[in-house]
Design goal:
The protein is of the alpha+beta class. The protein folds into 2 domains: about 130 residues, no CATH class; about 280 residues, 4-Layer Sandwich (Anthranilate synthase). The protein contains 9 helices and 24 strands. A hairpin with a 2-residue loop joins strand 15 and strand 16. The protein starts with 9 loop residues before the first strand and ends with a helix. Its EC number is 5.4.4.2. Keywords: Isomerase. GO terms for molecular function: isochorismate synthase activity.
Length: about 450
């Protein structure tokens, strides 16, 4: 969408649902649109609008386009909870130079839950004459139905009927293997290339040209035609309770790292950097891994880089910035992470996408100094990361939203015209700092791949 493009005039109607629904069952089995964590989340059905962006201006352009769309929209919302009203789900590429599209998608129907409340939002393209007065003098979207003390209005449109869930489909599973190198035949295999990249990163760090480089690698497989993607999404949601499980435009995963959450002027984030593999089958060994993480100078140093990069990026946009006093161990089924939570209040009117653009890329997924680390990644990683370690989340008409770093994830490609099979590529990486050991870093990526390899297994 360019500045010269006509602004789509959308009409979003949100109504409560009288009964609970199983969100994931409503998702499209082959093209799910999902955002879920515990007793919160949503599922999109169909598409009313899709916006795409590429290049270094993708966040700025997306924020401006969404602000214009929200200002022109009619929003009739009797629920008024985070995630109600006009909503777009999105996923953004990691690199400025990536050929991968960053997208915002407005579903035709969005079925959502917040604890013990369920609702549905239907978004359509409004007739031109119906949207002439859709925004007030401030440019904010107008809510055309005002709820009374009971949360209902005197005369409202009924909630749209929900489609019947698709019956459970086949799940033959996916077998992953190290992704084939993208370069010439004389290039070392992808595992060797990754280990060589770690060694070269350590060499550059020792010479003082950079302090930290986040290096990743890829594994790949093939998803047979007709596979029901609700199966791996359900596994991720059930096992990774502290993560947001997501599926947006073929980007599927469960991320533990909140890049930004913005609600009514309150902002929060969670920074993760520093990792140890879990050993849940051996409690004593597992506790030892946690304690090693907490006492490792290398891991604490890496974590401090990541926290400082977020604090520095957020500072111009917020006030009363607070962080947890010390990093704490975050326990996930596959790994221990060092974690720090941040909270603040917005100092100016910034949308969630604008905050994402200010934060990205953090030291946790790029390195320090950022520009030097990004240049090293482009040189040492023999592939385009695509949306891996970019951002995935949602935004509403007020500019509030919730975005995570796209980690523990895989990207599905287009279906083969003859067989219908789809390529699946998963990515994982870690921060390389002074003293990093290539074999240890490789083992860390194996642990980080586990959420996807287990979710996509037979």
């Amino acid at each position: 969408m360019t500045s010269e493009s006509a602004v789509p005039r959308l009409r979003a109607i949100t109504r409560p649902l009288a009964t609970a629904v199983e969100l994931l069952q409503l998702a499209d089995p082959t093209a799910p649109l999902v955002w879920q964590r515990g007793d919160r989340g949503c599922v999109g059905i169909g598409e009313t609008l899709r916006l795409s962006f590429t290049g270094p201006g993708r966040f700025t352009e997306a924020a401006a386009a969404w602000r214009a769309i929200a200002a022109a929209a009619q929003v009739d919302d009797t629920v008024r909870l985070p995630g109600s009203g006009l909503i777009a789900l999105g996923t953004f590429a990691f690199a400025d130079t990536s050929a991968t599209e960053s997208v915002l998608i407005v579903p035709r129907l969005l079925v959502a839950r917040h604890r013990d409340r369920w609702w549905v939002t239907e978004t359509t393209v409004a007739a031109p004459d119906a949207a002439e007065d859709a925004s007030d003098a401030t440019g904010a979207p107008v809510t055309t139905a005002t709820p009374d003390a009971t949360g209902t209005t005197g005369t409202v449109d009924p909630a749209p009927a929900l489609p019947a869930p698709a019956p459970p489909g086949a799940w033959p599973g996916v077998e992953f293997a190290p992704a084939a190198p993208a370069a010439a035949a004389d290039r070392p295999d992808s595992v060797s290339a990754y280990l060589d990249g770690v060694r070269e990163s350590v060499r550059r760090i020792a010479h003082g040209s950079v302090e930290k480089i986040v290096l990743s690698r890829q594994i790949a497989g093939t998803l047979p035609a007709g596979s029901d993607l609700r199966v791996p999404l359900g596994r991720l949601a059930e096992r990774y309770l502290d993560c947001w499980t997501f599926a947006v435009d073929g980007m599927v995963g469960a991320s533990p790292e909140t890049l930004i959450r913005s609600t009514a002027g309150a902002v929060s984030a969670r920074v993760l950097a520093g990792t140890r593999a879990r050993h849940p089958e051996a409690p004593q060994r597992d506790a030892q891994a946690r304690d090693e993480l907490l006492t490792s100078d290398k891991e604490q140093h890496e974590h401090a880089f990541a926290v400082q990069s977020v604090v520095t990026a957020l500072a111009p946009h917020v006030r009363e910035l607070r962080t947890s006093e010390e990093p704490f161990p975050l326990q996930l089924p596959n790994v221990w992470h060092l974690a720090t939570d941040l909270g603040a209040s917005l100092a100016e009117r910034s949308s969630a996408i604008e905050l994402v653009g200010a934060l990205h890329p953090t030291a946790a997924i790029a390195g320090t100094p950022t520009a030097d680390a990004i240049a090293a990644i482009a040189e040492l990683e023999p592939f385009d990361r695509g949306r891996y370690s970019g951002a995935v989340g949602w935004i509403d008409a007020a500019g509030d939203g919730e975005w995570v770093i796209a980690l523990r994830c895989a990207q599905l490609g287009d279906a083969d015209a003859a067989t219908g099979a789809r390529p699946v590529t998963a990515s994982a990486g870690g921060g390389i700092v002074a003293g990093s050991d290539p074999e240890h870093e490789f083992s860390e990526t194996v642990s980080k791949f586990r959420p996807i390899t287990e979710a996509f297994a037979r």
